[in-house]
Specification:
By secondary structure, this protein is an alpha/beta fold. It folds into two domains: 171 residues, Rossmann fold (3-Layer(aba) Sandwich), CATH 3.40.50; 94 residues. Strand 3, helix 7 and strand 4 form a beta-alpha-beta unit. Helix 2 packs antiparallel against helix 12 and helix 11 packs across helix 12. The longest helix has 18 residues. The chain is elongated and about 65 Å long. The model has no long low-confidence stretch (mean pLDDT 93). The structure holds adenosine-5'-diphosphate and magnesium ion. Adenosine-5'-diphosphate binds next to helix 4 and helix 12.
Length: 304
């Protein structure tokens, strides 16, 4: 077997980097298409590619804070990036993401869509103009999917405001034959079910807390291959998998933090593999030097 078989081929090259820089690399944000995400992404692709439907449908993805909903929306945006205007073709914007936090009126929703399209001072438009402008921009940009994050926030508003928010979403779906992906905490399904017509058009999927199962094993195996450590850690071994669930409570964000911080410690201490001790150390000691190095690398890349 080749040396460093525990790493992806592209990651092996990073072993030649100076240690400080390698420790910094551990903290770079990485997106892993784990097995719970794959069917969700497939369904989203299906929604995007379906010919426009009179009754557009949608998907609600719910999960605890830190379960990866916003990362999912970023991954979809990366997969369907905007295209600039060229050769007589107009610019397109296949995916737009808006956040429902504190959106109490239809106006706010439209303003957020307009801002996404780069309209300056959308607050200056009057009601009808604002709505017309939003519809026009969505059509011109060939919008194929609207993502609405933090949908559960509407539950903190009055019944009337909730109806307005959901009516606006329904209106956009109908007028533009536009599929919608809504993201939110475990209260997200309840927020959507306020409107039974809307509810009937949506499928519901969850990003649950992680536990010790095959999903976790496969996820940890993929993650380990992406972290440039000289020695294998066997993250998915019963001991380390149990440590990770114990220390994180099954929250993906915490699992990622523990593993990547412990990996940075492993480079700095020269241990070159993640151990129970380093995971426990990662709980209370953030890898400060590695973070500074990561910031430096990001800065250099930006300047390059
Ligand atoms: N698919 C993924 N691959 C790798 N890390 C992830 C993934 N999804 C989430 N994470 C980690 O969890 C953190 C929180 O994710 P986020 O999408 O902001 O959660 P949510 O929106 O559900 O609160 C991210 O910063 C990242 O570290
Ligand atoms: Mg989020």
């Amino acid at each position: 077997m080749s040396e460093f078989a525990h790493l992806d081929p592209g990651v092996r090259d990073q072993l030649d980097l100076p240690s400080a820089e390698r420790a910094g690399r551990m903290l770079a944000e990485r997106f892993i298409t784990h097995e719970r995400l794959a069917p969700i992404l497939n369904y989203i692709e299906f929604l995007i590619h379906m010919p426009p439907q009179t009754r557009a449908s949608g998907l609600v993805v719910s999960g605890n804070p830190g379960s990866g909903k916003t990362m999912l929306s970023r991954a979809i945006q990366r997969r369907y990036p905007p295209t600039p205007a060229e050769n007589g073709n107009v610019a397109t914007r296949p995916v737009v993401v808006i956040n429902m936090t504190n959106a109490r009126e239809a106006k706010t929703l439209y303003n957020r869509i307009l801002s996404e399209f780069g309209v300056p001072d959308p607050g200056n438009y009057s009601g009808n103009d604002r709505e017309r402008m939003a519809l026009k921009l969505c059509r011109t940009a060939s919008l194929r999917l609207l993502i609405v994050d933090e949908i559960q926030d509407i539950l903190t508003s009055t019944a009337r405001q909730q109806r307005i928010a959901l009516d606006t979403i329904k209106f956009l779906m109908n007028e533009l034959s536009l599929p919608i992906l809504t993201l939110g905490t475990s209260s997200a399904p309840a927020a959507m079910q306020v409107d039974e017509h809307l509810n009937a058009r949506f499928k519901y999927r969850e990003l649950p807390l992680w536990r010790r199962d095959q999903f976790l094993t496969n996820f940890l195996d993929r993650l380990e291959k992406a972290l440039p450590l000289r020695k294998p850690s066997y993250l998915s071994s019963p001991t380390l998998a149990a440590d990770l669930i114990r220390l994180s409570g099954g929250v993906l964000q915490t699992i990622m933090q523990l593993v990547t911080h412990a990996a940075a410690h492993a480079v700095e201490t020269g241990e070159e593999q993640i151990t129970t001790n380093l995971l426990e150390r990662a709980v209370f000691e953030p890898p400060l030097a590695a973070a500074k190095q990561a910031a430096l690398q990001a800065g250099l890349q930006m300047a390059a």
